[in-house]
Amino acid sequence: MAISRITLVFGILFLLAFAALATPQDRDHDRDRDHDRDRNPIHISYERVARDFGGGPGGRPSPDALCEPGFVAVGFHVQTGEYFNQAWLDCARLRPDGSVGDEIRMSGRTGSPGGRPVYDAHCSDGRALRGLRGRTGASIDEAIGECSYVREIAERRDDPRTELTESIARPHLGGRPAEVQCPRGMVVTGFKSMSGEYMDHLWIVCSELQRDR
């Protein structure tokens, strides 16, 4: 019995010692992972590429609606009458760790002046715009934002977790289903359009998320 008790005591002491040694190692591993992230901050490329959302063939090029350098789109606004008239973006500063800041700056507007109601579509906290879905025909009928976490976009995942914004639609909805996403590893930083009396055609403008090596 005495030997069994001694063996049990030594066994307990061994487990406690093992746990004490393992815990700092796990913490060190977490610190190393955070340190690696700090050493490889995420930033936005100055180069931009456009991807077609859809619409009709009419209109003339309108001024682009672009986020300032270092900012990513986290929502958008549309001014409408019978059709989409103008669209612009809410832009937030990208932090080196891949989070988005609280400071919001609006881009300029693209499209044609007109319309009255302004409708808003926002990504939820921590997410940025990576694409649009909705309906298009001879013009833009509906636009819904696709939002994902910046870190997951930067990791170039095939299917980053996506949430949708509010739908913005013109009064007499028509057209066909349309959808566009930024290329893998890129995030929305602008809109461009062709417009006449109203917005005829819409593109998203994308910028690459890059990590320092």
Q: For the terminal residues, how far apart are their CA atoms? A: 62 Å
- Counting helices, strands and paired strands, the structural category is alpha+beta
Task: Kindly state the percentage of residues in helix.
Answer: 10-25%
Give me the Rg, rounded. 25 Å
Q: Pick out the low-confidence regions.
A: 6-10, 13-37
The SSE order reads: HEEEEEEEEEEHEEEE
What is the arithmetic mean of pLDDT? Answer: 86
Number of E-state strands: 14
Main sheet makeup: 5 strands, antiparallel
How many helices does DSSP assign?
Answer: 2
* Beta-strand share of residues: over 45%
Q: What is the 3D form?
A: globular
How would you explain this protein's 3D organization?
The chain has 213 residues and is α+β, with helices and mostly antiparallel strands. The protein has 2 helices and 14 strands; from the N terminus they run αββββββββββαββββ. It has helices at residues 2-39, 150-154; strands at 42-55, 60-61, 65-66, 71-80, 84-94, 100-106, 110-111, 118-122, 127-136, 140-149, 163-169, 176-181, 186-195, 199-211. The strands form 3 sheets. Strands 1, 2, 3, 13 and 14 form a 5-stranded antiparallel beta sheet that branches. It is globular and about 50 Å long. The chain starts with a helix and ends with a strand.
